[in-house]
Amino acid sequence: EFVEEANVITGGYQAEYGRATGGVLNVVTKSGSNEFHGSVWGNWTPGALTGVSPAIENESSAVTAQTRLWNTVDFGAEVGGPILKDKLWFFVGFAPSFNRTRTTRELRAFVTDPVTDEETNPVVPGSTQNRFTDTRAFSYIGKLTFLINSDNNLSLSVVGSPSSSNIPFSFSEKRSTANGWRGGSITTADTSTVSL
């Protein structure tokens, strides 16, 4: 939502794009103007409305697992406008997103019928377990644009998208701590950029 335009150039481009061997991707972020403007948006995707992917059977394993989307929520807001009319403008935006998937694990037994010699692998009763993986990302942008003269301007931008995931480490119920957290790993990534 923070992008005003994106250009993809894959061949026959001008000399200004020199030293590029495959292609050029040029992305322009939104900026403020002499009028205040902004928007608010939101999306929700419930997992019940997504298709179920077929389970991949593995005849040599007693453990089967299938991951399915539980829900996805993202929303955000952006606003831009003048600080000094015809001279200095601002643009800011914030867009968090939350994603949850459910992994269902089952244990299967290897059973051979003594009469027909046919092999089956039914689910072991009581072995079905579910675990959830949560992913959070917080995208943001801040941009100041200063008009030096009619031909030149100066922009200062701060863009980032820190994220974190809580991934179940094990289906074992024996993993627990004093605060009730049952195993797993928490991964974080912070991608922030300041450009002038």
Largest sheet: 8 strands, antiparallel
The H/E string reads: EEEEEEEEEEEE
What is the number of beta strands? 12
Which radius of gyration do the C-alpha atoms yield?
Answer: 26 Å
Q: What share of residues are in beta strands?
A: over 45%
Low confidence ranges = none
Helix proportion range: under 10%
Structural class of the secondary elements? mainly beta
What is the number of helical segments per DSSP (H or I, 4+ residues)? 0
Distance between the termini: 21 Å
Average pLDDT reading: 82
What would the principal axes of the Cα set say about the shape? elongated
Write a structural description.
The chain is mostly beta strands. It is 0% helix and 58% strand. It is built from no helices and 12 strands. The strands form 3 sheets. Strands 3, 4, 5, 8, 9, 10, 11 and 12 form an 8-stranded antiparallel beta sheet that branches. The protein has a two-stranded antiparallel ribbon with strand order 1-2. A two-stranded antiparallel ribbon has the order 6-7. Strand 6 (111-112) and strand 7 form a beta hairpin. It is elongated.
List keywords for this structure.
196 residues; mainly beta; 8-stranded antiparallel sheet; two-stranded antiparallel sheet; 12 strands; 0% helix
Layout of helices and strands, plus pairs?
Blueprint: E1 3-9, E2 24-29, E3 37-46, E4 63-84, E5 88-107, E6 111-112, E7 119-120, E8 129-149, E9 152-160, E10 163-167, E11 185-189, E12 192-195
Antiparallel strand pairs: 1-2, 3-4, 4-5, 5-8, 6-7, 8-9, 8-10, 9-12, 10-11
